[in-house]
Every structure is written in structure tokens, then in C-alpha cells.
Amino acid sequence: RLPLTGNTSSIDETYRMDGLRFFATYFREWAFGVSKIIDKRLTAGVRVQLLFGKANLHTYYNKLYLYTNPDIYQLRAASSIQVNASPLIVSTDASQHIQNAEIPDISVVRFLLNGKNKGLGLSAGITYQYTDDIVLEASLLDVGAIYWRYVPVRVREEADFTYNGFRYNPITNQFENVQQTIDSALLAYNTSVTSKNYLTALSPKLFIGGTYQLRSWLKTGLLLRNEWYHNKLNTSITPSLQINYNFLSLIVNWTYIHRSILNPGMGINIQTRRFGFYVVSDNVYGIFKYKSMKFSNVRFGFNLFWGCPKSKEKAEKACPAYDEIPQKRERLARLKRN
Fold first, then answer.
1. pLDDT per residue over 61-113, tens digit each?
2. Gap between the Cα atoms of 158 and 191, Å rounded
3. Angle at 165 between CA 159 and CA 171, to 5 degrees
4. Could you give the CA distance from residue 164 to residue 12 in angstroms, rounded to a whole number?
5. Distant-in-sequence, close-in-space partners of 324: CB < 8 Å, separation ≥ 6
6. Reduced to 3 states, what is the DSSP secondary structure of residue 180?
């Protein structure tokens, strides 16, 4: 609101902008998982994630204040910010003022194969067949962290600056104190730059939900999602409806999150004997109303299957890709008896 409407509404008040933070991480994940059918109703699984960080930039903390004097409209700004990044080279002058920041000169191949920023993550989940039509599910995902040690940098900045305005001389038609104001602003902030390694955590997620098979072609579901994102808990609840026809599934859902209810979502899943593709979003409306959008998640992926019969009728009877949970348990029981 400040750059659009100015500070008129905050005169004689401290305008706090502590919430302005930035997080960006690029990493590669290799996951190894296993699941076990414990009994005829309960299935549990775990997954270990080996993480290799490629690039990271985030604000560790941020304090930013702006005060407008009600009498002479003098502005006082104070800030305290720390930024961690990798890979990044930051150069300073003798006064520790930042002169330049640049990415190291490395090839694309070396960047993609960089394995120095190692991390570890853990995920686990359970599925419980309450009745033939009701399935309950819960999972805890992405509990872990990445240790950044490839060309890391920590930049800490603190500033306290008072702006008194520019003095205009009507005789010379010039502003007289422009350079002095700029020099005062440069002297008002202090920075420290170090090349220490640092740690970033993943964003753990807790999912609790279930589905109810209304018809052979119709399924409804309810999902409670909790995400711990940089010391803040984000909770949402999503009812959904899934329609199945032949090899095609259509999903529609509605999400309540951040005190916002107008978040319709949609997804599609295509699955054949050899190939599967899915894409799903929990806020397709936000794509068109991006100015007022608070969040949007989009996921898509491909699945490839081997060992399924070419005939569709035989595949549905002998291909695990077509199995629902009760069929998986029946298949396992037959294998054990044989």
C-alpha cells in the first residue's frame, strides 16, 4: 500500500513492514521409499530424501520501520536485515559498504552436478481402510534441512536514517543539499559480510484426510493441510470430488485458506497401461485474479508402468497400476498363499 498511496495515512505512526521477506531455493531430490501392508486394513510407508542444494537466497529476518513526523513531515527509516545466499560473491569497500554482488563463473554442467550442499529429508504416511468405501489417510512430509557450503555468503545490514527533504533555491532553480542527503544515507547504514556456511529447513507438511466411494465412478474427499513455512503455520481445508471415466479422471475442489474462501481448484489424471499424466491446482481462479491472489499450488507429473499386459481387460486384472487399496491387499494375500 505504501508505494501506491504514500504515507499520508500513517502520519505520526510507525509504519511497520516486518512481513516483507523473500525465500527462493533450488535443489535436487533423490527419494527412496518403501511401504508395507501391515494388516488387511492398515498400510504404512516411509521415504528418505537425499537433497543436493543448487541455489538459495532468503532473508533470515527483517525489521523495517518508517515514521513520519506530524509537524514537519520529517521521515525516519530504520532497518535490520540479514540475507543468506549461495552461490554468491559479495565484495565491499574499506567501510564495509557493498560494492558488487555476482554469481560465480561456473558452467551449467558444474552447477547442475554440484553436490556440496547436502541435505536430508524424511517423510512418512499411513492409509487405513475403515470400510469398503471409506479410506482414511495421514502423512508427514519434508522434515529435513539443507546445509549450504558452496560459495555461501551472509550479509547483515542495519540502518537508521532521517530524511529532512531537499532544499530548493528559487534564485538558482536548484536543489542545494542533494549530495549531502545521499552521503548521509550512505553513512547511515552498516553492513557486515561473511562467508560462513548456513542451514535452511524444508517446509514440513502434515496432511490428514479421507475419501468416500459414492459410486464406482464417483469419489468424494476431505483434506486438512498444515504447512510450517518459515516459522509460520499455514492451514487449509479442501473438500473435493473425483469423477472417473475409462482412463480419465477429473477432480474439482474448493479450498479455504488465509481467511479466503474463493479458491476453486481443478485437476485431471490420464492413466493407460503404459503411461500416466496428472496436473492439479488448488486455486485456478487465482491464475486469472493474480493481483488479489494470496496463494496457488500447481503440481504435475508423469508415471511410466512396465510389466502390464497389452490387453486392457487383462491389465485391469493383473496390473498393479489399476489396483485400488483392497485389490492390492487381495493380490498380496494370493501371492503369500501361492
1. 778 888 887 776 777 888 888 899 999 998 888 777 778 888 888 888 888 88
2. 7
3. 145
4. 15
5. none
6. helix
